Amino acid sequence: MAFINEKKREVQVKIVYYGPGRGGKTTNLEYIFSKLNPQVRSKMVSLKTDGDRTLFFDFLPIDVGKIMGYDIRIQLYTVPGQIKYSSTRRLVLQGVDGVVFVADSMAVRRKQNLFSLKNLQDDLLTYRKSIFRIPLLLQYNKADLAEEGIPVMPFAILEKDLNSKLKAPSLHASALKGTNVLKTMMKIIALALPSIEKNLQ
Amino acid sequence: MSKIKDEQFSAEVEKRLQNLFNDSEQFSGPLTEGPVVTTPSEEDLIDEISADDLLNDDSNEEDSLEEISEDDLLDEASGKNLLHDDLSKNYLDDDLDENVLDDDFNEDLLESDLDEDFFEDSSDKPSINMEHEDFSIKEEGEFNYYPFRLLKSIILSIDWEITDDIMDRFVSQVTGLMDTYKDDKFVLIFLHLLWELGKYIKKHQGQSHPNSIKTLNSVYNALEKLLSSKDLSDSDKKKILSTEMIKFKTLKEQISLQHVEPSEKSVQEQTQSTLFNNINEQKSSENFVSFEMKEIIKSIVHDELKALLKELSEWVSKR
Question: What is the pLDDT of residue B318?
Fold first, then answer.
């Protein structure tokens, strides 16, 4: 549920990018950050290990401005993908309004996608949220690797693996090249907004 | 806010967001709930990728898909799901269909795409002199990519999760490759580095030094570079190898330094333990004191009441 501060007339929309380690969650945020107009660009907080992997989380706030008297702030988070950071993942998911599940399209990462999706469901359950009900979008990242001859799972297989029951909106993407990255962000915000509106009313 | 219509609010947020970005054309396409968004490359991808590319084993693609599909994960109708009941109790507001991903999900099924029988199961550590200077290299044609592809997938698995099973497979795979490449000193040393790293990670698992997996990846990437670059001279190969050797030795130093910390930690723990015991003792003495104090207070109250009763009886008798 979005954080609504009636006193300050402020609405914070929390979007979390979730998925297996090295799937491209941070790259998504980095691309979004790079495409923000410099005059509105605040700062992206990124805590990383030596190995260039997300140790805690990335955080990118985007101020949308005042709409109907409310300051709308979109907060994009990533979670650390590695299994050992499960408690951090759960913490980041607290109060989440929408989740982008960044799956890795590489064939060798198939198992990791499934584990991570199950992990997401478990983590959401700790907040009494259902993976079937929360605004969720599946992003099949690294689609561009197919051009380099790296075995990448076709869309149909990813859908069957991850989305056959969820039936969430999904799309291919390349976080590195920026393909569908902004569209992913806009889509998940669009999915999350109706429930926020209800809370505001 | 009650004056705001739903569509207005969403549309305004989306419009504002689009204005914040340089590439507003990237937002094209449906942005509200609707049909699944797919990219034009979907069909191309399906055409380009064969089952052999997707799976590294002998099983056919359809079977494998059946084994690991989300249906299996989500299907609570399979009577195997023991977790389901527990979750239903805790989350009764969820529909039955939506409750749980099957916790009985069999990891082995997923891993069936890796050929475990590819290599001989030898756990003997081949004796290799790390300082060996007599390098020779195999002819390019002898390089078989397939076993390395399997090794790579295991390394990627380690990146995500370190389990005994994965590490056993890693060691087994490397050992097999050592046998295959026993005449190739360059590759052999690389494999030995991987073997040593794997052995360390297997032993320490989640507690492994953070740089160990990084070094493992680095060594593997260097090995892959060495094997895939046909034009590398021996001197280039030596440079690549020595770079990785330096990384390996640095890691060893870091680990040896890390080993000092546990002893310091144990001293700290011991100190903490002593302190804790002292606090406990203090607590128990505090309890003892408080017990004594209670007795004293009780005694005083008793005496006071006794005195009051005496005074009261005297006052009554006077009247």
Answer: 78
Min Cα separation B215/chain A (Å): 9
What distance in Å separates the CA atoms of residue B19 and residue B21, rounded to the nearest whole number?
6
B294 in a structural domain: no
Q: Which residues have CB under 8 Å from A67's CB, separation 6+? A: B9, B12, B13, B16
Residue B308 at interface with chain A, using a CB cutoff of 8 Å:
no
Report d(CA B40, CA B43) in Å as an integer.
Answer: 7
Residue A112: closest CA among chain B residues belongs to which residue? B160
Residue B26: its chain A contacts at CB < 8 A? 35, 178, 180-183
Name the CA radius of gyration of chain B, rounded. 35
In chain B, what percentage of residues exceed pLDDT 90? 0
- Count of other CB atoms within 10 angstroms of residue B278: 10
Whether residue B287 lies inside any domain: the answer is no
Q: Is the model more confident about A155 or about B4?
A: A155
In this predicted structure, what is the pLDDT of residue B153?
Answer: 75
Q: How many CB pairs under 8 A join A and B?
A: 220
Question: Across the interface, which of A130, A160, A183 has its CB nearest the CB of B26?
Answer: A183
A3-192 maps to which CATH number?
A: 3.40.50.300
B52 found inside a domain = no
What's the burial of A29, exposed, middle or buried (CB within 10 Å: 0-12/13-18/19+)?
A: buried
pLDDT per residue as tens digits for the range B261-304? 544 444 445 545 544 554 454 444 444 444 545 565 666 677 67
Q: Does B145 touch chain A (CB under 8 A)?
A: no
Structural domain count of chain B: 1
What is the DSSP secondary structure assignment for residue A9, as one 8-state letter?
T
Asked if residue B161 is part of any domain, the answer here is yes
Question: What distance separates the 2 farthest-apart alpha carbons in chain B?
Answer: 126
Residues 22-51 of B with CB under 8 A from A: 22-23, 26-34, 36-39, 41-42, 44-46, 48-49
Chain A residues touching residue B46 (CB < 8 angstroms): 154-156
In chain A, where the domains are located: 3-192
When pLDDT is cut at 50, 70 and 90, the band that residue B258 belongs to is low
A15 touches chain B (CB under 8 A): no
Q: What is the pTM of this model?
A: 0.48
> Could you tell me the residue range of the domain that residue B160 belongs to?
119-258
pLDDT in tens, B55-75: 233 333 333 323 333 343 343
- The pLDDT, as a whole number, for residue B6 is 56
